[in-house]
Amino acid sequence: MRMSNWKTRLKDGIKANKKSQRAVSIEAGLGPGYVNGMINDDKDATIGHLLAVCRAANLSIYKVLGDFDITPQTEEFLRLLTNADEATQQSILHLLQTSRKREAPGSPDHGSQNQQETIPK
User: Fold this and answer.
1) What is the pTM of this model?
2) Are 110 and 101 in contact (CB under 8 A)?
3) What dotted CATH number matches 5-66?
4) Hey, which of 13, 68, 95, 114 would disulfide with 59, CB 3.0 to 4.6 Å?
């Protein structure tokens, strides 16, 4: 049986963190063979269980599912942003886009420290 990439990343991450699949399963509050079954026996995992397994294994769900290396700070930002209302999300998006344009070499605002930007409400 060929393992899917996310399962390989999960298995390798658990091993790299010097934990056993059994220990991760138990720490995640699941049965002792849960992780082994998920990785080796094509046992379906709910997102809640996979999140618990990643936390117990000290792995980022973003790294496991998408092979994205992100910092804990970025992960926290994404969690907070996801739970924000649409107006807040739009304001933050606008702020980041404006900041990025100012930082771009050759942009009219590049290097300008005194520019003030209005954030839409």
Assistant:
1) 0.61
2) no
3) 1.10.260.40
4) 13
